[in-house]
Amino acid sequence: MTDVRPFVKTSASTANLMAGVIAALLPAFGIGIWHYGIRAAILVGISVATAVACELVFCLIAGRKITIPDYSAAVTGFILGLMLPPSVPYYFPAIGAAVAILIVKMPFGGIGRNWLNPAAAGKLVLLIAFRTQMDNYSIGSFTSLTPITLAMNGNSVNLQDMLTGSTAGCIGTGSAIAILFAALFLIVTGAAGIVIPFFAIFSFVIVIILFGGSGWDPAWLFVQTVGGSMLFIAFICAQDYTTSPVTIGGRILYGIGFGALTAVLRLTVSVENAALYALLAMNLTSRYLDAHTMPKAFGTVQHERQVRDIESRRRANAASEKRREEIRRKQEEEAARRLQTEEASSASEEVNTRENNLSSDTTVLNVQQIRELQKKYEESK
Amino acid sequence: MAGQTFYGGIRPYSGKDLSKYRPIRTVLPKEPLLVYPLLQSMGDPAVPVVEPGEHILTGQLIARAESELSANLHSSVSGTVYAIEEHAVVGGERQKSILVQNDGRFDEIQYPSSRRYSSMSADEIIRAVWEAGVVGMGGAGLPTHIKYNIEKRNRIDYCIANCVECEPYLTSDYRRMLETPAKLINGLRILLHIFPRARGIIALDEEKADLYRLFRKMLKDDTRIYVKKLQSKFPLGSERQLIYALTGRTLNAMMLPRDIGCIVNNVDTLVAVNQAVMVYEPLITRLITVTGDAIVHPQNFRVRIGMSYNELIERAGGFRQRPALLLDGGTMTGTKITDTNVPITKLSSAVVALRKDRVSDRRETACTRCARCVLVCPNHLVPVQLHKDVAAGNVDAFIAHNGLECSDCGCCSYSCPSRIGLSLAISDMRKKILTEQPEKAGDYLRRYIRR
After folding, report:
1. What is the 3-state secondary structure (H, E, C) of chain A?
2. Do A3 and B12 touch (CB under 8 A)?
3. CB nearest B368 (choices: A16, A241, A309)
4. Is this complex scored with an ipTM above 0.85?
5. pTM confidence score
């Protein structure tokens, strides 16, 4: 690959993009530890360790190139850990991470090939297998009801607590401030875009306004958007490179679909995990969206305005042939006059200088030297 | 004020500061043999009109363009023709070349006294350009007279001087414009004389603000030439992107600029046109930037075509240390040189020697579908999908996904965090289709077979 252009490349690599994701989520992790104690740190640690170990074992057994150094397994484990309730037993993250890596990611071909978001799929399996424990968010001083459940039951919710994450909920998804920081970090470093979350939240809010039953109330919309891991999944999980579409049109549709589906599922099926189900459903559509939103190549569609522009110039040319001819002649005469006056100045001297003049700083060889050089050349032949 | 621009594109490290402030230095060949490959443009090689042993003068015609797509070739030194044989050229191939033994005197042929373009007809000007062997020096190397020699000259609305020089490390155009701006302006006026309805545009990028002010001052009273400033971005110098940024007209790979009323010429080409028309001078010198962090004195040279790269590097003080990467051209679109005993041709633009080969250090990893290639592609393609089509060998899918629209700028390869050689794979496939399955390529061949 070395003798092929371009010979310069961006400094970004898969590894440092993935490391960026981990760095972006550290504040969310820290807030989780602050509120739920050291138990949260241990759960996330087990999740990361299991994910990395499973990927290593799979690579060794399948004889593939070891892909640990690109941090993708660590990111999967980290995100899965952040999406777990802090009260689950210690073997839950191990099962979830093992499922994510060994069943969802690696059998499809590893990084870049999986159809489902591994972390989200890992959590889905845990939800199906251990329904009651996964729905139990009570730890320490926090009650077992999350803000979104409270709000859907008609109770009032403290919005300030939702900003700081001082509520019952998953380890890393409770604090709006921490998630918005992560989003900003990813956008500023160029690791992720804004298209998918923007359209996701836009369509989500529209559907909630229309069918949520509380209309425009900003507090209600805020609780709906932040609660139930919606914000976290929209900014972090939905922007997963592998499972989201690559084209701009595909990303817009993906975002709209994800937001609307989340809203519908939240109002009908599941309050707490609507965003997760919606994400996994949309993951399955991303290849299809890609295939049907291929952008039109530059210039293959000649815009009507452009064609009109060219045509009108031509028509105008043909119509006022005589008048234009006259103007042109006048301009040319003027140009010629100017040229004549310029001819005396240095500018036109410059125009008329030869480029291949001998310059003073070079020496011209004498005949003797040339003969010697010639002899040398023939010898070398 | 932010300039106009186009979709996509990248901003690689420019490295122009190394040689930007060095004035152009003229160097003459000291080595006894100069080599002139017969093919120095797009299309067919020229046919030699001299015999070995014949005495020739500087500026004398040594090979004539017999076919339409071919350019005349002139000697850049005086001396005797040594042989006509195969010689190594840039890119590793061997091509039939005329070898001339330099007598060191540089005796010139008798040039007629200078003339005025305003008294010449368009056909006379085009003839003069053809005689001087001028080719497009922006990269493609299409003989320039073909660009001008079209039937409906009234249909051209814009004559664009491409002064953008978006390629990293290259500064020769910048120096040329700074030192001899009148030649460029006069070259553009000659072009406007051929195309009576057109307006001229000098397209500069934001980095060249000093030139922008200079040209604005010089062209204060000119009614036909406009100076425009565009955003600095790679590949702004690409024909299609430049036309779009300036005029809003779009162009696909099937069309030629003249279809939408534009003619685009490089700075070097316009100056060569000026020389050919005003003082009968053939194209025998070239401005070359010798630069990079492995060169002792990076600078801009005016050199004779036919000199070897070896000598040029020597004149720049040689290497500071053995370069890991030696390029003919800039880092984005250049080619690697392995043998430095190759001649400078009309299409050479720079020698870049870098201490560190930053690309081959990194290994290719699996695609993560991060879509950075999609975001930077100036032609609105989906390189990741095209790469998959190439891997599957699916020609029809490749064409359906507009693979033939690729302009080979390399932005996708540049921006790929997994270091996948996207642009290489795509351009290989594109060339294969154009040469082996022309019936599938259809109109895309128009760029390569004119008329």
Report:
1. CCCCCCCCCCCCCHHHHHHHHHHHHHHHHHHHHHHHCHHHHHHHHHHHHHHHHHHHHHHHHHCCCCCHHHCHHHHHHHHHHHCCCCCCCCHHHHHHHHHHHHHHHHHHCCCCCCCCCHHHHHHHHHHHHCHHHHCCCCECCECCCCHHHHHHCCCCCCHHHHHHCCCCCCCCCCCHHHHHHHHHHHHHCCCCCCHHHHHHHHHHHHHHHHHCCCCCCHHHHHHHHHCCCHHHHHHHHCCCCCCCCCCHHHHHHHHHHHHHHHHHHHHHCCCCCHHHHHHHHHHHHHHHHHHHCCCCCCCCCCCHHHHHHHHHHHHHHHHCHHHHHHHHHHHHHHHHHHHHHHHHCHHHHHHCCCCCCCCCCCCCCCHHHHHHHHHHHHHHC
2. no
3. A241
4. yes
5. 0.88
